[in-house]
């Protein structure tokens, strides 16, 4: 299994491609860059997954869906955000093409499979109403819930600081300390490091 990070958009967000046994999963394509497209050439792309539908995480949905023919999936509670991707981008001076609608929705307890890798879906609202994380064997694709030394912002529409902390407390902190956290912005970290040193998690 390979987890390939791609930093993109003016917001320096991390898109991830997971490749295993000839299949690939594209997670949070902020842009449909040539580099991202090349990373899946020769692979069967099982799905394009949005951890949430802020413009910097789904601005490349249309381009990658057209390039790969893969289904687009997200949580239903973020559909209102997905439907206004262009307007979101305009607010931040970032051009985003509109996204196609999801082919299906992901909910807590669902799984996403790529090759021989199975990822468990957890619903983690707070940064966005329909935010999800994907938990694999020894790692989690955390989107904008948890960062190295920080947490996701909650001042955007649909955000809630209390809800975000509850998502972290109940969904992420129970994971083993050596679980690698692949965040939507910034470097990777581990659950153990954040449990011990993240100032937002003191007392959780």
Structural summary, described in words:
The chain is α/β, with parallel strands linked by helices. The protein has one domain: Metallo-beta-lactamase, Chain A, CATH 3.60.15.10. The protein has seven helices and 14 strands. The strands form three sheets. It has a six-stranded mixed sheet, covered by helices on one side. The protein has a six-stranded mixed sheet with strand order 7-8-9-10-13-14. The relative contact order is 0.14.
What's this, in brief?
With 204 residues, the protein is of the alpha/beta class. 24% of the residues lie in helices and 31% in strands. The chain is built from seven helices and 14 strands.
Rg from alpha-carbon coordinates = 16 Å
Estimated share of beta-strand residues: 25-35%
How many structural units, i.e. domains?
1
Task: Give the terminus-to-terminus CA distance.
Answer: 33 Å
Structural class: alpha/beta
State the helicity in percent bands.
Answer: 10-25%
CATH class: Alpha Beta
Give me the CATH architecture, please: 4-Layer Sandwich
The coarse overall form would be globular
What is the name of the CATH topology? Metallo-beta-lactamase, Chain A
The number of strands is 14
